[in-house]
Amino acid sequence: MNIGLIAHDSKKTLMQNFCIAYRGILSKHNLYATGTTGRLIEEVTNLNIHKYLAGPLGGKQQLGAQIAQNDIDALIFLREPNDPKPHEPDVNDVIRLCDMYNIPMATNLATAELIILAIDRGDLDWREMYR
Prior knowledge:
The chain has 131 residues and is α/β, with parallel strands linked by helices. It is 44% helix and 15% strand. It is built from six helices and five strands. The protein has a five-stranded parallel beta sheet with strand order 3-2-1-4-5, sandwiched between helices. Helix 1 crosses helix 3 and helix 4 packs parallel to helix 5. 34% of the residues are buried. Pfam families: MGS.
């Protein structure tokens, strides 16, 4: 499966810890991330991640294009809901794309864990039929 990973600045450490905890599952899949998030995850997990540009430099749009082409099976976007920085990607565009293309998306740790465990059980294997 193709899994997208994005994190606002205040959630990057949380994303790293999430990827450490689920490294065994994530290592079985293709991972895509915005530049800084991907680099930080690679540093602590040694997972192979396809990195786009940094979010504010177009990485969110690159990942969005992959979503629109139905090439992402699940997205984890750990966001800062209260006070995102002006340079951080807007989550609303990505939510809209995921809703349009029926792509499961997590915006918090609890939902991210549910999606990763569902992927590991094979609950999202139906997505592969639609590529």
